[in-house]
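User: Is it possible to get a 3D structure for a protein together with its bound compound? The compound here is aspartyl-adenosine-5'-monophosphate. I've pasted both below.
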Amino acid sequence: MKRMYISEIKPSSKQVLVKGWVQRIKLLGKIAFVVLRDSTGILQCIAKKNIKEFSNITQESVVEIKGVVKKSKQAKKGHELEISDLKVINKSKAPLPADVEKSKTFIDKRLDYRFLDLRRPEIQAIFKIQSEIANSFREFFYKKGFTEIQPPSIISSSSEGGTELFPVKYFEKKAFLAQSPQLYKQMLTSSLERVFMITPVWRAEKHNTPRHLNESRQMDIEVAFANQFEVMKELEEAVKYIVKKVLEKCKSELELLNLKLKIPKAAYLSYEQAIKKVNGKLGEDFTPEQEKKLCEMYPDTIVFTHSWPVALKPFYIMPKDENIKSKISEGFDALFNGMEISSGGQRIHIPKLLIEMLKLKKLNPKNFTDYVNSFEYGSPYHAGWSIGLERFTMTLLKLNNIRECTFFPRDRTRLTP
Ligand code: AMO
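Assistant: Yes, that's possible. Here is the predicted structure of the complex:
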């Protein structure tokens, strides 16, 4: 008999074979109740024969059950499975180290036992939605004719400034884990023109916050012959598409998480306008509270802040009018539900200007020779951005800790499991 997933079972299904985990088991007089769970749902099963055999089945044991689907007034779904045969495939150790059914256990303990934590349908729902976010991001840019690229993860110099790199030993050379695919996606605009990628990045930031990871995944694009406004529009459309797809395809997951999503609007403000709105200091970055405040002024909106000061943006961001003396840049950030989800901008494609900017930012142009050289032989002006996959999942689902939407987080103190 072919195995059926719980979600495929209908009241009209007759003989079925199901496989999964024993979420709960109870013996009541002459009846055994087994709540079976697989990755698609939960099914109430009952046995009226050989009850003794059930008494030593532990919670979370893996079993396969053959039975007949019967209508039932007591069962939530209106039907249950009457067990004719139950086989224990692998018995679980008891007691469980963490509570599988409820979220009573603290996040640290839950992460220590993430494999168990993920047995909870509401935790699975977060990752099913994240999977849809990544899939619809891909779908959006494939449909537009972009090419998906695979940038390297081992790099020879910083791509986001001098600090925050994890060193690795690369034979006799010193190398680093990539902080971003930045330099590589840029180099590819002079051939493939429009590229996108989902790629892991590593940042050796020492702070431990609810919104930062030391290993995260970025959804990036880079586009030839585009400026900051053109790629901001691309971001607006991509995010709207992603939310639309999540709404269409993740109905039950959203319901489980008790979330009502809306396709967001978009607002465009210059950095100067935005910092004034939240009484921030001109020339300084937004504090987390100011980001939150700005988003509250524009509910259900992607808030773009563009034309940031050169001093607050990385070396590769184009200064206004291609002028090294400009104080304003062609760089932007995007905020959503209280937090930054993306940053990007137009890049410097002029080697001389790039060298000047590297020096201005106190970086050594010698460490960027290959990158700078790549712009010597016919490089178009170009722009792009990056959305943090976990950061976006966190803001979309209004989670209070980025670790909630990271399978196995890597943070300042956590390297296992
Ligand atoms: P930035 O450094 O702003 O830009 O990163 C882009 C987005 O990635 C996410 N992010 C993080 N998420 C979790 N933990 C972190 N430590 C972390 N750092 C960043 C955020 C952020 O908005 N190369 C540029 C992008 C570009 O210009 O194309 C870059 O990496 O959502």
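Residues 142 and 371 are 27 Å apart (CA to CA). The two ends are 37 Å apart (CA to CA).
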